[in-house]
């Protein structure tokens, strides 16, 4: 049996930074991964989808230069080449993660881990052999989450697909139905819509992107419709029948009526579930909640003191950057340092077109907490830089406490929203007031000025827009 200070199960955006930080803190660490290092994020999630999104953006932009006096003809997409390019990025990044683990002195084993004791892990290799490992200090569960499948829409890898297949398509669907109007459905649906697919969104709830500021969602929704897409809300996909020509007739129930929609591809994106099954957690006494999440304390510890859990498996939000932060915290705690989860807010970025990025409380959440709020809103349609970029959809919205003027939340929809949200996150972490944002000099002409102007607007002092 091999002995380590710590064993990390999973080498995704939670597990690999955790193993690296443990190694940096002079801990003897083993990281176990059953697939490729990098997890969902690097292999078929965040990064591959962003590569396709940036290709789609370029494809659209290259054809939208007429207003600027630029005429481009013959714009063509080679889906095979795009996939090769995307795969190159994935290879480079996952190779980089492998090198970082090795370079920092973390051992990596390829195989499936089972927790067989509070400090013991068995690893089953591809050839069926089993290796035993012991952790003198801690085991970290960083197994992430897996795609939820609907029984009536079993993935077949080609017509009925999940996000994993959707980022690897070497063809552009003609008619694409997305079941689930959440983050994955809209991000990837809009990619293929930009490349010419007719997009049909089927969402079970009354709104797309539930939980996001509805003002922001509206802008994205409008764009989907403007491009010829269809959105069915409060709708249920009942089942499908394959047609002779290979397409599928999907039966949906919307507005109390059944109808059949014929498409060639169905992307099912109805959420992810924590990967906590089959790990042996219950056998060693680790609490797993009804939804499959592993509850942890502020030190990332489960109810079994030597077992930690980080990232998606430990609970929402299911975001890579939350997993990474928890990985770093768990490593510090295991190495005996003082560290704990003490963030004010976790930002979210949704790479639709335009992007949505949010941090902190929405207007509705603040009001539900009984807070009186001031709202500042600044549209990109009046911002010089946005006009110069010819990307004027959207706005920055700031929610602040009316009495104290402390910033409670920032919600951005528009160009580079995902980049701009970092300033808003810092504002929340530093307990900033509206004045902090509005009095900070922002360079001109930039998109970032919109944050400064929105803060000024919340105080009735915006220069470039009428104050209420
Ligand atoms: P999601 O939870 O964002 O959206 C799923 C949607 O499907 C919901 O709106 C839900 O109401 C709907 N739904 C559920 N069952 C349905 C059914 N039977 N018919 C129709 N609609 C149904 O989940 P997702 O889009 O699959 O993403 C999974 C996870 O990955 C999320 O937790 C998300 O945070 C994360 N993710 C994040 C990003 C990002 O931050 N940019 C990108 C991709 C994924």
Automatic annotation (TrEMBL):
One of its GO terms (molecular function) is flavin adenine dinucleotide binding. NAD(+) binds at residues 180-187, 203, 271. PANTHER family: DIHYDROLIPOYL DEHYDROGENASE, DISULFIDE OXIDOREDUCTASE. Belongs to the class-I pyridine nucleotide-disulfide oxidoreductase family. Disulfide bonds join 41-46. This is Dihydrolipoyl dehydrogenase. Binds 1 FAD per subunit. One of its GO terms (biological process) is 2-oxoglutarate metabolic process. The keyword Cell inner membrane does not apply. Gene3D superfamilies: 3.30.390.30, FAD/NAD(P)-binding domain. InterPro entries: Class-I_Pyr_Nuc-Dis_Oxidored (IPR050151), FAD/NAD-bd_sf (IPR036188), FAD/NAD-binding_dom (IPR023753), FAD/NAD-linked_Rdtase_dimer_sf (IPR016156), Lipoamide_DH (IPR006258), Pyr_nuc-diS_OxRdtase (IPR001100), Pyr_nucl-diS_OxRdtase_dimer (IPR004099), Pyr_OxRdtase_I_AS (IPR012999). It catalyses: N(6)-[(R)-dihydrolipoyl]-L-lysyl-[protein] + NAD(+) = N(6)-[(R)-lipoyl]-L-lysyl-[protein] + NADH + H(+). Transmembrane segments: none annotated. Residues 346-455 form the Pyridine nucleotide-disulphide oxidoreductase dimerisation domain. Residues 4-327 form the FAD/NAD(P)-binding domain. Its EC number is 1.8.1.4. The active site is at residue 444. The active site is a redox-active disulfide bond. Its cofactor is FAD.
């Amino acid at each position: 049996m091999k002995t380590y200070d710590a064993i990390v199960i999973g080498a995704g955006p939670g597990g690999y930074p955790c193993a690296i930080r443990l190694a940096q803190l002079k801990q003897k660490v083993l990281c176990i991964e059953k697939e490729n290092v990098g997890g969902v994020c690097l292999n078929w999630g965040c990064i591959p989808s962003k590569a396709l999104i940036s290709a789609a953006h370029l494809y659209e932009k290259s054809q939208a230069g007429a207003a600027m006096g630029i005429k481009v003809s013959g714009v063509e997409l080679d889906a095979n080449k795009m996939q090769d390019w995307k795969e190159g990025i994935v290879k480079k990044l996952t190779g980089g993660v492998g090198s970082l683990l090795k370079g920092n002195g973390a051992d990596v084993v390829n195989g499936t881990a089972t927790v067989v004791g509070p400090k013991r892990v068995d690893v089953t290799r591809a050839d069926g052999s089993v290796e035993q490992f012991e952790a003198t200090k801690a085991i970290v569960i960083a197994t992430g989450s897996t795609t939820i499948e609907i029984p009536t829409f079993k993935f077949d890898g080609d017509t009925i697909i999940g996000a994993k297949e959707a980022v690897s398509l070497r063809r552009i669907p003609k008619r694409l139905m997305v079941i689930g109007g959440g983050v994955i459905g809209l991000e990837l649906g809009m990619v293929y819509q930009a490349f010419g697919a007719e997009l049909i969104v089927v969402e079970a709830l009354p709104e797309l992107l539930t939980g996001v500021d509805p003002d922001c969602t509206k802008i994205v929704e409008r764009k989907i419709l403007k491009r010829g897409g269809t959105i069915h809300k409060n709708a249920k996909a009942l089942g499908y029948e394959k047609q002779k020509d290979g397409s599928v007739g999907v039966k949906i129930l919307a507005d109390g009526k059944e109808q059949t929609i014929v498409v060639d591809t169905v992307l099912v994106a109805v959420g992810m579930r924590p990967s906590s099954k089959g790990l042996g957690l219950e056998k060693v006494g680790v609490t797993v909640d009804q939804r499959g999440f592993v509850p942890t304390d502020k030190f990332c510890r489960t109810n079994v003191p030597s077992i930690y859990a980080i990232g998606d498996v430990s609970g929402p939000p299911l975001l890579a950057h939350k997993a990474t932060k928890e990985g770093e915290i768990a490593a510090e705690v295991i190495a005996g340092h003082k560290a704990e989860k003490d963030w004010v807010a976790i930002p979210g970025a949704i790479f639709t077109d335009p992007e949505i990025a949010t941090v902190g409380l929405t207007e509705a959440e603040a009001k539900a907490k009984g807070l009186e709020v001031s709202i500042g809103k600044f549209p990109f349609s009046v911002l010089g830089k946005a006009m110069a970029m010819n990307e004027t959809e959207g706005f920055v919205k700031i929610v602040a406490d009316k009495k104290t003027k402390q910033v409670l939340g920032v919600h951005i929809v528009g160009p580079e929203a995902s980049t701009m949200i970092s300033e808003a996150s810092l504002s929340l972490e530093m307990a900033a007031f509206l004045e902090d944002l509005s009095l900070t000099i922002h360079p001109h002409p930039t998109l970032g000025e919109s944050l400064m102007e929105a803060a000024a607007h919340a105080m009735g002092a915006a220069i470039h827009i009428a104050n209420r």
